[in-house]
Structure formats: C-alpha cells, structure tokens
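Lecture notes, unit on protein representations.

Consider one protein chain, 270 amino acids long.
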Amino acid sequence: MMNILLPTDFSDNSRNAAAYALQFFKDTPCDFHLLHVVPIPSPDLVTGNMRMSPIVKKHFDKLLTWLESIKTNPGHHFHICFKADYLIDAVRAKVHEKKIDLILMGTKGKTNNEGVVIGKNTSDVMMKVKCPVLAISENAVFKQHKQILFPTDYNIKYGSKMLRTLLNLASLSKANVRILEIFNTEKEPSEEQIINREFLQSSFSPRIPVLQTYYSSKEPNPKKIFMANRNVDMIVLAAKNLNLCQRFLQNEEDKNIPFINQLPLLVLHG
C-alpha cells in the first residue's frame, strides 16, 4: 500500500494531477491524502475556530465525488485534510504523520501567472520538503512511461534511499532510464564524478531493462538538450543537486521544450 499526498487548491491543474495519480497507480493499492492548506487568517476558516468553511467543504465533496467516479482500482482510498498553516509546514507535518511515499501535485496553482512554468508553491515543496515530489503540468495527459530522462552532472552522491522512488516508478512502468550527463568543462568528469557515475549506473542494473547514456558539454541552458531528446515521458532531478535543479526550475516560458507543457517532473530526496 502506497501513501500518496495530493496537495490541492481545487484548481484545474491540481484536479488534473489527481486524475494523473489514479491512472499512474491504477494497478497499485494506494491511500491518497488530499490536503488543502489556507493561510492564517483566511476567509476559508469558520469565524473563531480552525474548521474549514462550508465553501471549502463543498469543494472537497465535489472533488471526492469526481475521484470516486473515475477510479478503476477498488484499492484506491481517499482521505481529506484541511490545515490552516504555512504550506511547507503543513506538507512536512502530513508527510511525517502519514509516512508519505510520494507527493504528487500540479506544477502551478490558480494564483500563478499564465506564463509561469513552475509555481512558487510547487517549487518550494520540491526543494524544501524531504520527500519525492512528482509535479504534473496542466497540459499533461497520462501515457505509459517508457523513457525516463535523468540529467546529472555527478556532483552529488546518490544514496539508495534517493534512488528507491525512481527504481520503483520505473519498475511499475517497465521503463528505461536515460542518464543525461551534463559536463561544463573539458576537465570533467573528475575522479569524484566518475565514482558517482559508477555507483549510479550500478544501482540501476539489473532492475532497469535498458540504460542509455547521453552526453552534453558546455550547454548553458539544459532545457535546450530536450530538443534532441523529445521521446521521453518523464524528467528526474535530484534535489541535492541544487545548481542543476535551479537551472531547470526557472520560471521562463519556452513552448518549444516538451517538458514545459507535457512531461511530469520527479524531484528526488534522500
């Protein structure tokens, strides 16, 4: 049984993320924890206490009814949670309380500007909550994941805990993992990078069917690399590799890169 946290602001993007979760884990028993967080003070609180307002309850009821109507696995169960708190604190508490295996959320909420690619709340959860996060764009349509792209510069050590989520998700889809090596100077890879590379590759074998490696050097904008790697179904980044993550998560509009409008983004912790 997997425990999956679905933060929701009841926007179309968060609704699409929830539907994506049901399809992705259609063959896996799951407890889905729907979390709605409001700041303090908030009009979504009943005056004088910390209970949700009738309008929030109505949103939850509507969302639950819809999820129950589209689910295909009787092993999928939904639990609602309302919290008046800072978003990151509320998510961290729920991850600890429910032993969450994965946070699955939309790339942006209803308060974000049209041109924003990754909303601030989603970016904050990705980088500040020590739990794997799978972000789903509002334009994403679920399809079986066959090719997963894992960009890395090998500047961090990959522990088994960090890779566990990727291995499990790849196994569910029987997907291949492509390691995209990003080297910025002629002196790379260094001895340390080579050690990290060998550990990463040995961690995948023999569980992952095929491991394909792509090389890139001196490309200042890693998003451009996707132009040569369009046939992928998911992007994976390690949160500890902060420099690389920041380059990918910049809020810039670029409709020519498939990741921006279609691909789920998985951020690993560990």
